[in-house]
Structure formats: C-alpha cells, structure tokens
Design goal:
Blueprint: E1 2-3, E2 17-25, E3 28-32, E4 38-42, H1 46-57, E5 60-65, E6 76-78, E7 81-85, H2 90-109, H3 120-140, E8 141-150, H4 157-164, E9 169-173, H5 181-184, H6 190-197, E10 202-205, H7 208-222, E11 226-227, E12 230-234, E13 240-247, H8 254-261, H9 264-276, E14 282-289, H10 296-308, E15 317-324, H11 331-351, E16 359-362, H12 368-377, E17 380-383, H13 392-400, E18 407-411, E19 424-426, H14 431-443, H15 446-462, H16 465-477, H17 488-497, E20 503-507, H18 529-537, E21 542-547, H19 552-559, E22 566-569, E23 574-576, H20 588-607, E24 612-616, E25 619-623, H21 629-646, E26 651-655, E27 658-662, H22 668-679, E28 683-688, H23 694-698, E29 705-709, E30 718-720, H24 726-749
Parallel strand pairs: 2-5, 2-8, 5-7, 8-9, 9-10, 10-13, 14-15, 14-17, 15-16, 17-18, 18-19, 20-21, 20-28, 21-22, 28-29, 29-30
Antiparallel strand pairs: 1-4, 3-4, 6-7, 11-12, 12-13, 22-23, 24-25, 25-27, 26-27
Length: about 750
C-alpha cells in the first residue's frame, strides 16, 4: 500500500502517455490504517486485472475519480501505473453519478426494469463532469495516443476528446446493455448521447444485440449509413469517418481464479463452509450486487415455492445468498434491500430448523479468496439476472471448478448466456421454469455435470480477460507494421472455411493481387497469382471473383481473368456473371450527370500537376498519387467543394490517393452480396487493401474470412503484409479444399 498524497489543487500530469484509460473510478482506492494514515491499495475487479499488465508495459496512464469527494490529488505513480485523479464534489456525485448515471441511464439501459427519472440538473452535471474527464484525458494523452474510455458514466467523453484532440485514437466500451430503440428513444438527451459515443473510432458492447441496438438508434436518429458493424459519420472536412460498433464479450482472469481454487487453504475453507451450513446434500449459491436487475427476489420466490410444495427440504438443500451493498443512498435500492430481507426472513421463519437454515443471507462483500471458497463449496450456481451486460460471477464459478463438477443455472438475459451455452438456461420471469431448472440442477447425474462443466471451462479459458482486452485494442489500433508470412490463426480459419459445401473466393485487384503503380493500366498481378486462381477453379464447389473499383473493361485488361472467374467492376455497378455480356443500364439523368462531372474534374485536373482522371461507366475518379501533398489536397478540396454544390446527389468515395464520384450508388459490399447469391456460397473469403474494401468486410457473416492486405484500421479478422502473400493464401485454401475432398471421397469409398 502506497501512502496517499496530501490534497492539493487539481493539476495536469507532468508527462503524456501513449495509452490512456478513462473510467469513473481509478484502479486504486484510499485505505485508512488504524493510526489514521492514508494509503492507496489496488481495487478488486476484472477491468483492473485486464489492463494493469498492459499499462505497465506501454507507458499508460489511468484517469478516474479516486473514490472520495471534495478532495484533489496531484497525478502520481502507483505500482508502475501513472494515476491521474479527477476531483468530484459531493453535489456532483449526487447529480452526475447517483442521479443521471444510476437513476436515469442504468434503469433505462436495463429495459426499464425500474422507472428511470429525467432531471435537467442531473443532465447538466453529467455534461460538466464528462467535460472534466475529457480535459484530464486530453492533457494526459501524447500525440497520436490511444484513449480507451469505459462505461455509461462517460458516454460524452469520446466526442469531447475528438473535438479537442483529433489526433487521438479513441475507443469506448459499454459494460452494460444498450437498449432497443423503443426504450432508448425515451431519453430526452438521446441524440446527445449518441453523438458523444460516435466520437470514438471503436465502440464495444457486451452482446451482438447491443451493438445492433446502437446502430439502429443511429440510423433512426441521425440517418447515418450503417453496414454491418460500420457506421459512416460525417466529419468536419466534408468527408466521412468510419466508426465501428461491435461486440467484445468481457471476461475474467480465469487462470488466476483456478490458481486460487487449487490452494489447500482455500479448499479447506470450502469444506469448512459446507460443515458450517450443516453439510446439506446440495448448496445453491447466488452472488450479486443488491440491484433490481439481478433477479434476487425471483430466485428466492422459486426456492420458497419448492420448499413449500415439498420438492426440496432444508435438510437437503441450502441457498447461500451474497448480496453486496450497492448505491445505498438511492431510493429504489433502499426499497429493494427491505424487500429482499423481508422475503429472506419470512422464508427462514417458515422453513428453517434448529440445525438447518433455508437461506444463509449476507449483505456485505467478501475478499476474493472467500468468494473462491464459496464457489468451490457450491453445487449449483444461480444467476437469475433480469438483464445483465455480462455477469462475470457466472464465469468466475466456472473458472474455479477445476474439479469439473458443479452446475451453472444462467439467465438467458445475461450476456454470458451468449457464450455459456452448456449452462442450464432459464427465463427468470418464468418462476415455474426457474423451479424446474433448480430441480434439474440438483438431480443432474454426475456424467452430465462433468460434460457440461468441461465445455463451459473451455469457453471461459479460451476467451479470458486478456483475450478480451487484446482483441479490443487490436481492433482499435491495428495499423502497425505487419509481420511477413501467413499467421497460424489465418491458416486455421482457412481450413475451417474450406469445409463448406460451396465457397466464394472474392479478391480485390489493385493493392491485393497487384502492387499499386503510378499508371493504373500498367498494374499486373504478382507472380503465382494466376496459377493459384486456376487451382481453385479446378476444385468442385469453389468459385472465384475479382471485385474492383475499376471499370470492368479496365479490370479485364489488367487482370486477364480465366473464363470462369466472376467479375464486378465500378464497385459492383458493372458485373459479368458467367456470360460474355457486361450488365449496366444508366438512365438519361445519370448520363447527364456524368457529363457535368467530367467537365468539372477535367478542368481541375488540367490545372493541377500530378493529377489525372480515370473514367468509369458510372462515374469518374480523380487520382492524386503523383501530385505533391499540397497540390493533392487542393485538388481534392476543389473537387469536393464544386461537385458538392453542382451535383449534391453524387456518391463520393475516398481511396488511397484517389477520390471517386459516381452517379449510381454501389459499394464492394453490394457487389460481394450479389456475387454470394449468384455463386450460392455457404462461406466467403474476401481479400482487399483499400478503405473501399471495408464495405465488403462489413457484410461478411460468421464463418466467412476477411483478409486485410497491409497496414491500417480494418474490419477484417486477418491480415498479411502485401500482394506477394496472397498467392500463398490462395494456395492454402486450395490445399485445404483438396484435403477435404480427399477425406470425403475416402469416406464414401469406405
């Protein structure tokens, strides 16, 4: 424990940092010793565990409130992490935290299980405090730093940071659910919250449904185009900034929990707990914050009815309920505590005996070691949340059970249910269903318990907290130098993809199959590409397609495709699908727009050296690769400004050293969807290098594989260094597909 600094006026940090984490609470809290001296100790919690090692190794700082009102502390270092405290007054805690965060946002985001309250003074405090956090983060962040903002208390911080420091890479993770639009729309400040979140580059959610709810709210309230996990947000320069809204299920340090569980003293404590409870045949356990979203009353009601109808007896089954204090100054929480304690008292009065208590109830928290002992002692874990972003207690119970025993009864409304499919899943509102699940868990045969727990543990250990944080930050910051070679994870994904009945291998051309060149007509695929494509074409159930922003005639010229290759040019406006004809049909109005577009771009290009025009059937592209940066910027600004006034309905698309204008809207995502339908593909592999390829990555489905060529932010799950690696990747697909065919042929012969 390090000593606490004397309170001083708030101060900016002396240094700046490449990684800044921002959360309502710091990862440390003040502890007062018996002699009255103060010191800092590390706070418990999965987020701290996940980020501590990373922050120590990456020159990181943590911005947050130190947990005590009306005191200021200078920035300091604690256990290898730079700490930047943010001061909050008592009145701000009442309005920003207890008020807007926990009496407005919390119930609203949890499906209005309790009615949210809307007060303008709470909102004003929320804005004011978010501004203070944003200012502290902006002061702590080095140029180009990554800033990771956490949770519902700080939803305005990303936009405030974006406006103050456009150089930053900004991520936000929402630890609680995000509600459906019909519920979210009740919020008076609904657009302001969305705008705040859209300041981030990456917005993470616990569940796929939460990310979808957010994107739908953006479409309804702002009308921004969304495609898959991508949202195109207008930027001040007239361009669009791509924001990713994606689910990243949070997890725990599973190995650390198992290590604790294997300690002899913890196992002895678990045996002692069972003995203290009268050694019942079955111990059921509930561990929750005392919160109306946790469904504590529902499990107590179900247990009470089972005792009342004789299905269970207190001699055989005991329920241990740990309900740690939560927001004890907020009215609904005060009422909830009274309700739960009254229910526990009544049930114990009705059913407890001298030697056996029906419910062992504990309204306080326990150290982690005691919790692990409780998990080991419990035969059945009850998680009956009415709505929960994740519920890490479920994962902690699984991680602790190194004996592979125990049964997890899990609410389908907890985020953990998306991953932990081998739990006994319940609808906590269905009391009869909860009762049936409890009886099933109590009577479950040992072999079934072992099978289920083995599967649950595999999921928890494969997707631990380190994998969660690494996945989020990798998605947020991808763009560092790419290592040469084919990653093992990519090779494994290609083997899985190759097992599908019908596969589509779709490939961008420039920058993917061919290096970028100054003259587009000189582009040619790297050596080995044609042979790799032919190997794929020779295999049953495999189709190959080239997808390009080029006009289709130009694409055919540079790619020289085999007859069976499907072609999509001009971002899908032109296609050639198993016929010699090119499909394209522009109307008179579009032809007139093309003429006007050509006149403007030819005049701009003619006056600026190093730029040239590429004509396409449904548009034109202004290339600036050979111009100086200053002249390139001038050309792009002139084109965007003049055409925005003259032809405001054009589709505008930015690429590498190029801006494209089209009279008909289409993207590589549209092209890929059409190709998938035509090929009847069960799985799709798509490779691309440009920002325009992100539209294709955005429409990939689970089981598909996206490959980014080179550096830069991307929705693709995998990447390689350059076009020279692509023939190797195609060869891996062909090898895997041939192996699958051989296996099937051998199986048929047998």
């Amino acid at each position: 424990m390090t000593s606490a600094a004397e309170p001083t006026a708030s101060a900016a940090p002396d240094s700046t940092y490449s990684l800044v984490v921002v959360s309502n609470r710091l990862p440390i809290e003040i502890e007062v010793s018996e002699d009255g001296t103060e010191g800092w100790r590390t706070s418990p919690g999965g987020l701290v565990t996940a980020l501590e090692p990373m922050m120590r190794s990456s020159d990181g700082a943590w911005v947050g409130w130190p947990g005590i009102a009306d005191r200021s502390f200078d920035p300091f270092e604690n256990d290898g992490i730079s700490i930047v405290p943010v001061r909050l007054s008592e009145s701000e805690l009442e309005d920003y935290y207890e008020g807007f965060s926990n009496d407005t946002i919390w119930p609203l985001y949890h499906d209005v299980i309790a009615p949210p309250r809307y007060h303008r003074e709470w909102w004003e405090a929320y804005v004011r405090v978010n501004r203070r956090f944003a200012d502290a983060a902006a002061s702590a962040a080095a140029p180009g730093a990554t800033v990771w903002v956490h949770d519902y208390q700080l939803q305005l911080v990303p936009r405030m940071l974006r406006d103050a420091r456009p150089d930053l890479v900004i991520g936000f993770f929402n630890h609680i659910p995000f509600p459906p639009y019909g519920i979210y729309a009740q919020l008076p400040w609904r657009k302001q919250i969305l705008d705040g979140l859209l300041g981030a580059d990456l917005i993470g959610f616990q569940r796929l449904a939460d990310a979808g709810n957010f994107s739908r709210a953006v479409r309804r309230l702002y009308g921004y185009p969304t495609r898959g996990v991508a949202i195109d947000v207008p930027a001040p320069d007239g361009k669009h900034r791509r924001v990713i809204a994606k689910h990243f299920p949070i997890s725990i340090d599973a190995a650390a929990y198992e290590e604790l569980a294997r300690r002899p003293e913890i196992q002895e404590r678990a045996r002692q707990i069972r003995e203290d409870l009268g050694n019942p045949q079955t111990i059921m356990l509930g561990v929750d914050r005392l919160d109306y979203t946790k469904g504590i009353a529902h499990r107590i009601k179900a247990f009470g009815e089972l005792l009342a109808d004789g299905s269970l007896s207190v001699e055989d089954v005991t329920l241990v309920q740990v309900a740690s204090p939560s927001r004890e100054r907020v009215g609904p929480y005060i009422a909830l505590r009274d309700e739960i304690e009254l229910a526990v008292g009544r049930l114990n009065g009705d059913f407890s005996t001298i030697s056996h208590t029906a419910i062992s109830y504990h309204h306080h928290g326990y150290p982690r070691e005691e919790m692990v002992a409780l998990y080991l002692a419990a035969d059945v874990m009850l998680v009956t949340a009415l709505r929960d972003g994740m519920n890490l207690v479920a994962k902690e119970y699984v991680a602790v059970r190194f004996d592979r025993d125990g049964v997890l009864v899990l609410s389908e409304f907890a985020g953990a249910a998306d991953e932990l499919k081998q739990a006994v899943l319940i609808n906590p509102h269905d009391i009869d269903g909860v009762k049936a699940a409890i009886l099933r868990a109590v009577a479950m045969p040992r072999q079934e318990r072992l099978r289920r727990m083995r599967s649950l543990r595999r999921k928890v250990f494969d997707n631990d907290v380190d994998a969660w944080s690494s996945s989020f930050l990798r998605t947020l910051t991808e763009g560092a130098a790419v290592r040469p070679g084919i990653p093992d994870t990519l090779a494994g994904a290609l083997k899985d993809l190759s097992r599908a009945d019908n596969i589509l291998v779709a490939l961008d051309f420039d920058g993917t199959l061919a290096p970028h060149v100054d003259k587009p007509e000189d582009a040619r695929a790297v050596a080995g590409t044609r042979e790799a494509v032919q190997r794929l074409l020779d295999l049953d159930g495999v189709r190959v397609a080239f997808v390009s922003g080029r006009a289709l005639v130009s694409l055919r010229h540079v790619s020289q495709p085999q007859t069976d290759v499907l072609l999509a040019g001009s971002h899908g406006i032109e296609v050639q699908l198993d016929t010699p004809e090119i499909e394209l049909d522009l109307v008179t109005e579009e032809l007139e727009q093309l003429d006007a577009l050509a006149r403007v771009l030819e005049r701009i290009s003619g006056s600026i050296d190093g730029t040239w025009i590429e004509r396409k059937p449904a548009g034109l592209a202004l290339h600036t690769r050979l111009a100086t940066p200053r002249k390139a910027a001038a050309a792009l600004k002139a084109a965007r400004g003049e055409l925005g006034t003259l032809l405001p309905g054009l589709t505008v698309r930015d690429g590498k050293d190029v801006i494209e204008f089209a009279v008909r809207a289409s993207t590589k995502g549209d092209a890929l969807a059409r190709l998938r339908r035509h090929a009847g593909a069960d799985r799709v592999f798509y490779a691309g290098d440009d920002t325009t390829d992100e539209d294709a990555f955005a429409v990939l489905r689970p089981g598909d594989v996206g490959l980014k060529i080179g550096a830069g932010d991307s929705l693709a799950g995998y990447r390689v260094r350059g076009p020279e690696d692509v023939p190797l990747v195609l060869g891996l697909i062909a090898d895997a597909r041939a192996a699958v065919a051989a296996e099937r042929e051998a199986a048929a012969g047998a």
